Amino acid sequence: MRCWRLPLLLLFFFWAMPPVPGGRHYPHSAVLDGSSRYRLSWAHQGDTIAFRLEVRTRGYVGFGFSSTGAMTSADMVVGGLDRGKPYLQDCFTNADRILKKDSQQDYHLEYAMENNTHTILAFSRQLHTCDPNDKSLTESTVRVIWAYHEKDFKYGGQNYHGSNRGTKSLRLLNPEKNAVIPSSLPYFDLANQNVAIPEQDTTYWCQMFKIPILHEKHHVIKVEPLIQKGHESIVHHMLLYQCSSSLNDSVLDYGHECYHPNMPDSFLTCQTVIFAWAIGGEGFIYPPHVGLSIGTALDPQYVLMEVHYDNPSYLEVLGCKYKKSYMPSSPASYHSLCALDAEKPTGIHVFAVLLHAHLAGRALRMRHFRKGSELQLLAYDDEFDFNFQEFQYLKEERTILPGDNLVTECHYSTLNRSDMTWGGFSTRNEMCLSYLVYYPKINLTRCESIPDLMEQLQFIGVKQIYRPVRTWPFIIKSPKQYKNLSFVDAMNKFKWSREQGHSYNDYVLKLPLNVRCTKTENAEWTIHGMMALPPEIERPYTAEPIICSSSSRLNANLFLTVLIVVHISAIASRNHEPFVQL
Ligand SMILES: *[C@@H]1O[C@H](CO)[C@@H](O)[C@H](O)[C@H]1NC(C)=O
Ligand SMILES: *[C@@H]1O[C@H](CO)[C@@H](O)[C@H](O)[C@H]1NC(C)=O
Ligand SMILES: *[C@@H]1O[C@H](CO)[C@@H](O)[C@H](O)[C@H]1NC(C)=O
Ligand SMILES: *[C@@H]1O[C@H](CO)[C@@H](O)[C@H](O)[C@H]1NC(C)=O
Ligand SMILES: *[C@@H]1O[C@H](CO)[C@@H](O)[C@H](O)[C@H]1NC(C)=O
């Protein structure tokens, strides 16, 4: 009897009131732990976000947000069912990881259930609650922290500290992707075979691949990483470049370390980034009206896959795969990279951005300027996590017009480092870049910029360098203390104080930039770029004020919820099994 009574009961739920407890639709979900015991699902609408936790425990479940990923100074909620009686408390932890109850309760239980193995809790809150103990939820990365225990929760009890716990970075406000891709679509893999990773902490491994020959235009609509199980932490990022179409199949025979003096010349023809993936990212699905064109004469035929392996401690043999699926589809075409050419007067439309930095990166943003005005940020991440870098889909496509300026800004923390941090390929060097995915395709491979080097050197008192400059690094001529030193050596020799560091920062941000952009099939990478000044901002962008709302708004719903509680409890107790509770 009991077995079929419960489903009937639930059906009643769904029919009676569409936004019913437990009946909410959660378009996003993620397993938070390594053994699939803790699953989070969530839904976001307007200012409200709703969560559903399904955890393999009959004790309490903890969930929260922490700026560092640690259990200190975090916004937490703790809930469960104690002998059938549901509880949920809005809490916070202090700097000593002591859990305290929030004086303002902003998490609202919508549904709770426990069976022989699992606890399910559904609750909601406002994105901005006005409570300093709650974390405001934005488009930035958020480090979700989770915990569970076999016993129910008691304040000050030992069971808090003995829990299973962990952290995972997520972007909670990602737009919904409801693209359903049929599994029967054709696809192809680009996979490195048995690469022996050298015993060094950074390896950029390059291998050429040939795109399958198709005799008409097709579009790639989805790309997903294929990483051998257990090697997830070694594969740091992958880039796919389009190479010259005049190559032949002899280039496919072997891989080589990239940026190496002995690497084959054919690699140098691969300049246009057509896809990027970085650690923590998942598959990428193009919007319905866009795809990566393959199969025509202008499309990629030979591609170079560059894999950054991060191998600080050991040697491994690795087979890493890069998988693409494709299908004949819509007429649009797309191309991925970093700036705009004047050839498209109607501009390009950006729909996704990947912000990239290395270990010192803390906050990244991409700013967009047009004729003296700053527009809304194209993308931002105020809590950048090096281990979680994926394409952010924009809420709305953004048009970039000729003459617009795009600036990627990176804020770093190097407080723990005693030496200067340099730009470079290692994760302990830095990068500051963004990959934009846009359409239609334009003739541009990439853009780079560097604040004028001579002016940077003037900050530390350099007067003259040897000219003409034909080599990198160039050499300093005077004054004497820097004579014959390179840029890097001179900067390292200077005795930096904290104040000098700060004023150098301010100084560099105002310097003219040397900007270098290249076109496809244009092998010349000009040594001297074009000088450009940082955009002048007459009308800065003013962000819309955050409207925070405390819990009072939810009272209207509460009445209905209370009605359901009574009803369910009555049925449940008749069954002598408090299966469904609220
Ligand atoms: C308990 O609930 C979980 C989560 O919904 C479910 O996967 C599991 O099958 C349930 N167990 C039983 C015995 O019904
Ligand atoms: C392929 O390219 C290589 C290197 O550019 C060249 O030496 C070789 O002759 C080419 N082979 C064919 C069949 O064109
Ligand atoms: C800085 O270094 C100290 C000591 O090595 C370490 O405890 C701390 O976590 C580090 N802080 C950061 C932000 O990396
Ligand atoms: C700098 O290099 C030049 C040319 O190599 C050399 O003649 C000169 O002695 C060097 N000066 C110093 C201070 O090392
Ligand atoms: C891109 O521009 C370069 C330089 O003007 C030209 O040589 C090349 O053919 C162009 N490529 C395409 C695909 O239009």
UniProtKB/TrEMBL annotation:
<keyword id="KW-0479">Metal-binding</keyword>
<dbReference type="InterPro" id="IPR000323">
    <property type="entry name" value="Cu2_ascorb_mOase_N"/>
</dbReference>
<keyword id="KW-0503">Monooxygenase</keyword>
<dbReference type="InterPro" id="IPR024548">
    <property type="entry name" value="Cu2_monoox_C"/>
</dbReference>
<keyword id="KW-0812">Transmembrane</keyword>
<dbReference type="GO" id="GO:0005615">
    <property type="term" value="C:extracellular space"/>
</dbReference>
<dbReference type="InterPro" id="IPR005018">
    <property type="entry name" value="DOMON_domain"/>
</dbReference>
<dbReference type="GO" id="GO:0004500">
    <property type="term" value="F:dopamine beta-monooxygenase activity"/>
</dbReference>
<dbReference type="GO" id="GO:0042421">
    <property type="term" value="P:norepinephrine biosynthetic process"/>
</dbReference>
<keyword id="KW-0256">Endoplasmic reticulum</keyword>
<comment type="similarity">
    <text>Belongs to the copper type II ascorbate-dependent monooxygenase family.</text>
</comment>
<dbReference type="GO" id="GO:0006589">
    <property type="term" value="P:octopamine biosynthetic process"/>
</dbReference>
<dbReference type="InterPro" id="IPR028460">
    <property type="entry name" value="Tbh/DBH"/>
</dbReference>
<dbReference type="InterPro" id="IPR045266">
    <property type="entry name" value="DOH_DOMON"/>
</dbReference>
<keyword id="KW-1133">Transmembrane helix</keyword>
<dbReference type="Pfam" id="PF03351">
    <property type="entry name" value="DOMON"/>
</dbReference>
<keyword id="KW-0560">Oxidoreductase</keyword>
<dbReference type="Pfam" id="PF01082">
    <property type="entry name" value="Cu2_monooxygen"/>
</dbReference>
<dbReference type="Pfam" id="PF03712">
    <property type="entry name" value="Cu2_monoox_C"/>
</dbReference>
<protein>
    <submittedName>
        <fullName>DBH-like monooxygenase protein 1</fullName>
    </submittedName>
</protein>
<keyword id="KW-0325">Glycoprotein</keyword>
<keyword id="KW-0186">Copper</keyword>
<dbReference type="GO" id="GO:0005789">
    <property type="term" value="C:endoplasmic reticulum membrane"/>
</dbReference>
<dbReference type="InterPro" id="IPR014784">
    <property type="entry name" value="Cu2_ascorb_mOase-like_C"/>
</dbReference>
<feature type="domain" description="DOMON">
    <location>
        <begin position="36"/>
        <end position="149"/>
    </location>
</feature>
<dbReference type="InterPro" id="IPR000945">
    <property type="entry name" value="DBH-like"/>
</dbReference>
<keyword id="KW-1015">Disulfide bond</keyword>
<keyword id="KW-0732">Signal</keyword>
<dbReference type="InterPro" id="IPR008977">
    <property type="entry name" value="PHM/PNGase_F_dom_sf"/>
</dbReference>
<keyword id="KW-0472">Membrane</keyword>
<dbReference type="GO" id="GO:0030667">
    <property type="term" value="C:secretory granule membrane"/>
</dbReference>
<feature type="signal peptide">
    <location>
        <begin position="1"/>
        <end position="22"/>
    </location>
</feature>
<dbReference type="GO" id="GO:0005507">
    <property type="term" value="F:copper ion binding"/>
</dbReference>
<dbReference type="InterPro" id="IPR036939">
    <property type="entry name" value="Cu2_ascorb_mOase_N_sf"/>
</dbReference>
<dbReference type="GO" id="GO:0042420">
    <property type="term" value="P:dopamine catabolic process"/>
</dbReference>
